[in-house]
Specification:
Blueprint lengths: L2 H12 L2 H35 L5 E5 L6 H12 L13 E5 L3 H10 L4 E5 H9 L7 H5 L12 E2 L8 E2 L2 E2 L4 H4 L8 E5 L8 H19 L6
Parallel strand pairs: 1-2, 1-3
Antiparallel strand pairs: 3-7, 4-5, 6-7
Length: 222
């Protein structure tokens, strides 16, 4: 042990408790702050993992008309239409409000959702880029007057023919009962990310069940 180390230890042993604390805090307070912050992050991560519930269907909502109470009611209603995919004895519907354009772009790009309630501008933008599945057969069996909504039929870039890519939600009884007109808002199905993956097929089976139920409550022409 060198002389400087011996001297430092001798000085430390001569300090009273208060002086030792003052010395420690002066030189190591940054380390304490960092340590506390790291512990906090770990605690939050553990809590979030413990509380995390895997959804059996995810719906992105682009708009502001649906408030928290209405969204909660939709979740409860939709949960009665779908199957429990992860055997946790509950059918969980996730409805994610999306107001930020960057978040919307990411959700569409990585297929974080299977369904989307989307406004007219975003609908036309993403439908024209091939983000949605055709819904011709589904809407044909409904009471919706397709001619009253010419905007839902279009030809995406690099496609050879036009299709219907959105279901108008305006006047739909399910939403009007919650006080939402859903004017110029459309229900869409995002294209599969990996149609060969069994779990993804199951997610889209649940999505299809919700679409069919919504269509049963559509009005011919609001």
């Amino acid at each position: 042990m060198d002389r400087e180390t011996t001297k430092a230890r001798a000085m430390w042993s001569e300090l009273d408790r208060k002086k030792k604390w003052e010395y420690f805090w002066y030189y190591y307070r940054i380390h304490v702050y960092v340590g506390v912050f790291v512990v906090f992050l770990i605690a939050v991560t553990v809590r979030d993992c413990a509380q995390r519930v895997d959804a059996d269907i995810t719906i992105a909502y682009v708009g502001t008309e649906l408030q928290d109470e209405a969204i909660a009611q939709l979740k409860a209603t939709f949960s009665t239409y779908i199957e429990d995919l992860n055997n946790d004895k509950k059918s969980v519907v996730s409805i994610v409000p999306v107001l930020d354009e960057r978040k919307l772009f990411v959700m569409v790009a990585v297929r974080e959702a299977q369904l989307m309630f989307v406004r007219k501008a975003e609908f036309q933008q993403y439908a024209s880029n091939g983000a949605f599945l055709p819904l011709d057969d589904l809407i044909a069996s409904s009471t919706i007057d397709v001619d009253a909504y010419p905007e839902i039929r279009l030809t995406p870039q690099e496609a050879q023919e036009d299709h219907i890519y959105g279901i108008p939600l305006e006047g739909n009884v399910l939403f009007t009962s919650l006080g939402a007109t859903m004017k110029e808002t459309y229900l869409t199905m995002l294209v599969y990310n990996n149609p060969e993956k069994p779990h993804e097929v199951e997610l889209y089976t649940n999505a299809l069940a919700i679409v069919k139920e919504i269509l049963t409550q559509s009005t011919p022409n609001p």
